Amino acid sequence: MSELTPQQRTELEAAAFRRLVAHLRERTDVQNIDLMNLAGFCRNCLSNWYREAAEEKGLPVSKDASREMVYGMPYEDWKNLHQGEASATQKAAFALNTPHK
Prior knowledge:
Number of helices: 6
Radius of gyration: 16 Å
CATH architecture: Orthogonal Bundle
Helix content: 55-70%
Number of strands: 0
Number of domains: 1
Structural class: mainly alpha
CATH superfamily: SMc04008-like
Order of helices and strands: HHHHHH
Oligomer: single chain
């Protein structure tokens, strides 16, 4: 990828990020616990990474604002509209897959 300038690389990464966020907004059927169990991250992780990147740049982005950027609406609204109760199987898988500190 040495043929790309740093600006081009950043633009491509930003486009891929925006596409990922759009995809996650459309796939409301995929629960965060499913993402955590399969991929080790979820929408909340993504919003935290966004907020942390803003903090590193000295930009004021709140937890609520970063979640709204990922979810496309306030987090509580998304939870009320789309989040179901996790099954016993999902909870067991989460307990097995979650790193213990």
